[in-house]
Specification:
Number of strands: 0
Order of helices and strands: HHHHHHH
Shape: elongated
Strand content: under 5%
Number of helices: 7
Structural class: mainly alpha
Distance between the termini: 39 Å
Radius of gyration: 25 Å
Oligomer: single chain
Largest sheet: none
């Protein structure tokens, strides 16, 4: 299955953006872990305290959490309670229902972005500070807005790609064992590498006969 000649995932801005997300993830992970280790060493070896360590860790942990969520959206690898693969084997119907679910996810994400924007603007206006080190709380709070914004970008990009494939090739997901297409869909998309329901039944019967012959 091929895609259109214009593929946003192959452009330099796309690659630079996900590279920046990876860099922030690594940086936040290293600093958060380093602060925890340093705090433990001070407390249990040198009998001292790392003042404000929790505020520093919280700041970088916020960004690590939301950049991790962004990367999950980029890979489209979020954990999903997807029962369609179990109960729906017509790949056209299954992918169509998945496209509807993606639209709902984009709408919900858009609503959350509006709330996160108000939260971000409130932080910039009031500029609250942490109690110990007086770190502007808008720094970790901004991760909520930018994280949701980038997640929406990747959700929309995946939806556009999947919708294009669905319209032009008949389906977009990786066919699973048991997936099939109807004769009408196969006639419309002859290049689709998905068997007909009748062909699938013949294949299953052949496998059963083969296994029975072995015994």
């Amino acid at each position: 299955m091929t895609t259109s000649n214009i593929d946003i995932t192959k452009t330099y801005p796309w690659k630079i953006l996900i590279g920046l997300v990876k860099y922030v993830m690594i940086l936040c992970s290293v600093i958060s872990t380093g602060c925890i280790i340093y705090s433990v060493v001070l407390r249990y070896i040198f009998k001292s305290n790392f003042y404000g360590s929790d505020e520093i860790i919280l700041m970088f942990a916020f960004w690590l959490y939301f950049m991790g969520a962004v990367y999950g959206s980029y890979e489209d690898s979020h954990i999903k309670a997807d029962l369609l693969n179990v109960y729906v084997k017509n790949i056209r119907i299954k992918d169509f229902l998945n496209l509807i679910a993606q639209v709902i996810m984009i709408v919900v994400n858009a609503i959350l972005i509006t709330w996160a924007w108000d939260y971000f603007m409130w932080g910039l206006e009031k500029m609250p500070l942490s109690t110990g080190l007086k770190i502007p709380l808008v720094i970790p709070q901004s991760a909520v807005f930018f994280g949701l914004l980038l997640m929406a970008l990747y959700h929309i990009a995946h939806f556009i790609r999947n919708a294009y494939r669905y319209v032009h090739f008949g389906y977009y997901s990786v066919p699973q064992y048991g997936d099939y297409m109807t004769a009408a869909s196969k006639a419309r998309f002859p290049q689709a590498a998905v068997p007909l329901k009748e062909e699938l039944k013949d294949l299953e019967e052949a496998e059963e006969n083969y296994e029975g012959g072995e015994h």
